[in-house]
Amino acid sequence: MNNGRTKGEVEAAIRNAIIKFEQEFMGRGPEDVKAFILCDLLVVRLKGVLTQAERQLAKSVEGIEMVKAMRQNLISQGREKLCSQVSEIAGFTVSGLFTDIDTKIGERVIVFSLEEDLEEHFR
Questions:
Q1: What are the helix and strand counts (H, E) for the chain?
Q2: In 10 A of CB 123, how many CB atoms?
Q3: Which domains does the chain have, with CATH numbers?
Q4: Closest by alpha carbon to 87, among 121, 114, 123?
Q5: Average pLDDT of the residues in 48-69
Q6: Range 30-33 contact pairs with CB under 8 angstroms and sequence separation of 24 or more
Q7: 108 has which bridge partners?
Q8: 59 close to 96: Cβ distance less than 8 angstroms
Q9: What torsion do the CA atoms of 13, 18, 46, 40 make, to the nearest 10 degrees?
Q10: Residues 6 or more apart in contact with residue 38 via CB below 8 angstroms
Q11: pLDDT digits (tens, 9 = 90+) for 2-37
Q12: In this structure, are residues 70 and 90 in contact, taking their beta carbons and an 8 Å threshold?
């Protein structure tokens, strides 16, 4: 299923797809992105995701809620495209997408669950 690619190559391809998605849907890319294949999960950690305006908003409880709601809304609008891209890279269907953002440190985590154990294909 991995077309002869290494685990690192697949993780890099997923990383690049996430960066492109963030640039297209969020208007800017994160400062750093790492992708990890863990059994049937793809865990993506994005650092430096907040815009200057979001950092200002995140100084209040209401602002934090606004930032989180906006980010959730944007990812739900692009969910189908993002899951399709990740499925194509991984070679397996994405069955779930979970995400949260920590506005205090400006990090976001995205977890994709796959229908099969991708990690097994690299052993």
A1: 3, 4
A2: 6
A3: 7-114 (3.30.980)
A4: 114
A5: 94
A6: 30/108
A7: 46, 101
A8: no
A9: -60
A10: 119
A11: 678 899 999 999 999 999 999 988 788 899 999 999
A12: no
pLDDT value of residue 24:
87
Exposure on the CB side of residue 77, measured as CA atoms within 13 A: 11
What residue has token string 């990812």?
75
Residue 43 CA to residue 47 CA, distance in Å, equals 13
Q: How many CB atoms lie under 10 A from the CB of residue 35? A: 24
- Cα distances from 42 to residues 51, 98, 101, in angstroms, run 25, 10, 17
Q: Which helix (H) or strand (E) holds 118?
A: none
Per-residue pLDDT of 67-119, as tens digits, reads: 999 999 989 999 999 999 999 999 999 999 999 999 999 999 999 999 999 99
Instruction: Give the separation between CA 92 and CA 87, rounded to whole angstroms.
Output: 5
